[in-house]
Amino acid sequence: MILTMDEIINAICLHMAERKAVRPTDVQVELSWDEEDGYTAEVWVQGRSQFLVESNMIEAILRYLQSEYDIRAYREQITLDVDDEITAHVNTD
Q: Which Pfam family, just one, is annotated for this protein (predicted)?
């Protein structure tokens, strides 16, 4: 299973909205990848900026898989990848 960049953003929005007690539409996310920091997400909630590292992003993806697809996955089953856009590969075997 592959999650698109939009699904990863949705996962982070839902995750951060729950943690900050705001609506998912009040959360903005920008994903990025570079050689120094790897995969990161900059998140804006109520005018404040926060950076998430790869492990935080995977935590949000795990919760999203459970709530949206009823899939119980583990960290080891998820890998992030970047070609034209960032995607998440979920090994459900």
A: DUF2653
